[in-house]
Amino acid sequence: MVTTHHSIINACGRRLAIAFGIVLLCVSSIQLWATRAHAETKVIGYIASFTDMKAAIDKTDLSKLTHINLSFTNPDAQGKLVENGTMTCMPGMQGGNVSAAEVRYVIDKAQAAGVKVLASVAGGVIPACSGNWETLLQPANRQALVNNLIAFMEDFGLDGIDIDIEGVLLTNIDNAGNYTPFIQELSAQLVARQKLLTCATASYVGGMIPESSIGYFDFVNIMSYDAIGPSWGQAGAEHSTYAMAVDHVNIWKNRGLSKEKLVLGVPFYGYGFGSYKSDYTYASILAEFGADAANRDLIGTACAGCNYITYNGAATIKAKTKLGLEQGSGVMIWELSQDAAAANSLLKVIDDEIKQIATGSSSAASSSVAASSSAQPASSAVASSATTTGDSKSSGGGSLGAISILLLSLLLSLRVLCFTRTAHAR
Fold first, then answer.
1. Does the predicted TM-score (pTM) go above 0.85?
2. What are the strands, taking DSSP E only, across 189-287?
3. What CATH architecture applies to the domain 42-267+310-414?
């Protein structure tokens, strides 16, 4: 009986040791997965050359960003991007083109903080100094432009290239059969160098990148804003509602854009109508109307013929960040110089929400989104995220805690079972 008793104890000890090892392995694996998942979250901020780029990078908390896109540079008619220490077509705040030194200052400061920097080419409005993109991307000229972009990237030590060909220009290039071949050739060069290729795209017919190009991009920034502006859109509309973001996410998921590549764009600016001026930065809205404006998306009432300003306040940015992480891999910002300072910073709102999600404070994600047909006000945006269906996927911290507790419970149950069998053997 003593031999049997010791055999049972030894067997239980071995089982407990094996079980404990499995628990440690599982917990470590989950922790590694959660760490990697958080590391892959993207916060991409554009910095525009027509602002003060050095001031913008100096005032930005770079610890809250993963990527910066320098916008916008264009090649001249010969496809060159830099000449005699000056960008050939990258308009500056004071007129003319910015210096190569100014561009290098931003790149060096961002990379020193661990932020990847990409050069964003083209833009929503192509400046007069640019070469004709439709001509530059014709088969006879395309390889020379690709070579120039690669040489520019390597010379400046950039981490990749962001393509921001938009609207009618995009449609014309694609209809000529020249968009995807350009992206394909550029991608081959960047993949060989382990550099990034990204793009920005709208979500309306005639303004979307072709589906044939999606596979070549490392990620796609969805420009979910500008539904209305100074000279376009339906009178009385808001320019960047939460409901529109949901709709745009669904459009791109249906077009085959994966969660890992989808990045949701958010605005740090607004538009005014009626008696208000046409353009506002988020910082200028708060400066003019007070810090309480951060709690709203509107100054005035949005209606046809009314006086109002439409923008995204903190609650809507928070909700969109959650949407961007649930349905995609992060958020993109247009653009960083427009942010307010300190406690009123929208970049801080984004960073806080990402940290809450990483620690399990926000609710779990889901695999698809059902769009609402009406705008969702800022006051309800945080309380109600996207309506979802399908399989749910928990966010890092909450999953880690629940699974760890389950594994430890199993270990304790096995321990109790062993001691019970030992007691019976006596």
1. no
2. 196-201, 219-222, 262-267, 269-273, 279-281
3. Alpha-Beta Barrel (3.20)
